[in-house]
Amino acid sequence: MLETTNEELQSTVEELETTNEELQSANEELETMNEELQSTNGELQAINNELQSRSAEIDRLNTFIESVLGSLDAGVIALDKDLRVVVWNDRSMDLWGLRSEEVLGQPLLSLDIGMPVAELEAPVRKCLSGEIRQTERVLQALTRRGRTISCRATFVGVHGPHGVDGAVVVIEELPQPS
């Protein structure tokens, strides 16, 4: 009986040794995975830091561009290829009475701004097609205050690395003849 108990204990010891080896192997695998995860975490942290840095730079540049556009005495309207408004500066708001929040993403041709927007379509489309780089028109318009003005609308295609990405319309009020 002592021999049977001894054999059972020996068998249990062998099983425990096998289990211990398996646990040690699993522990080594977990340590390797932990090292890999720490390395990946370090890489992700570096990428995150770079993204934060670039986001801060983009914010700085956007603020600068908004400042430049806000300081112009001309209305500036930037359009995407579908003629949707992507930029609407403060002078445009002063002239036409619509805030940028109201027009961003809206089709230019659907805006009721006192300017004959239908007359803007052909020159904008020519700029978008690449047929011309820049052109201008003199138009009569009605400001938000009900004043009739003459204005020069300059149309310029916005060229990117893959062709024309959009167009800009710059609207300058012309002096009234005395």
Question: What does this protein look like?
Answer:
The chain has 178 residues and is of the alpha+beta class. It has two domains: 1-71; 73-173, Beta-Lactamase (2-Layer Sandwich), CATH 3.30.450. 52% of the residues lie in helices and 24% in strands. The chain has four helices and five strands; from the N terminus they run αββαααβββ. A five-stranded antiparallel beta sheet has the order 2-1-5-4-3. β4 and β5 form a beta hairpin.
Task: Give the helix/strand class.
Answer: alpha+beta
CATH hierarchy: architecture of the largest domain: 2-Layer Sandwich
Question: What proportion of the residues is helical, as a percent range?
Answer: 40-55%
- Radius of gyration (CA) equals 34 Å
Assigned CATH superfamily of the largest domain = PAS domain
Number of domains: 2
Distance between the termini: 127 Å
Q: What is the residue-averaged pLDDT?
A: 91
The helix/strand order is HEEHHHEEE
Instruction: Provide the low-confidence segments as ranges.
Output: none
How many helices does DSSP assign? Answer: 4
Any chance you could write out the topology, listing elements then pairs?
Elements: H1 2-71, E1 75-80, E2 85-88, H2 90-96, H3 100-103, H4 118-129, E3 134-142, E4 148-160, E5 163-173
Antiparallel strand pairs: 1-2, 1-5, 3-4, 4-5
What labels describe this entry?
alpha+beta, Beta-Lactamase, 2 domains, five-stranded antiparallel sheet, 52% helix, rod-shaped
